[in-house]
């Protein structure tokens, strides 16, 4: 895997996280810990994972409602 491919993989993952953050915000939902899992990004061949993190029970309920 080339460095350029690795960088574009991480960049694409960051863009996806921002899209998700924006979509959640439009639904009135904020996941404070939303981001990329740092361990999955620093590998020689990155396979980025999205860390959704913790949220309050209220936020979890709002998220469930939006997903129904």
Description:
This protein has 68 residues and is mainly α. The protein has one domain. The chain is 57% helix and 6% strand. The protein contains 3 helices and 2 strands, in the order αβαβα. The chain has helices at 3-26, 38-41, 57-67; strands spanning 35-36, 50-51. Strands 1-2 form a two-stranded antiparallel sheet. The longest helix has 24 residues, at 3-26. The N and C termini lie far apart (39 Å). The mean pLDDT is 91.
Task: Write a brief caption for the model.
The protein is built from three helices and two strands.
Order of helices and strands: HEHEH
Structural class: mainly alpha
Helix count from the secondary structure assignment: 3
What value does the Rg take, in angstroms?
14 Å
Query: Helix coverage percent of residues?
Result: 55-70%
Main sheet makeup: 2 strands, antiparallel
| Unreliable stretches covering 5 or more consecutive residues | none
Tell how many strands the DSSP assignment holds: 2
Q: Approximately how much beta-strand content do the residues carry? A: 5-15%
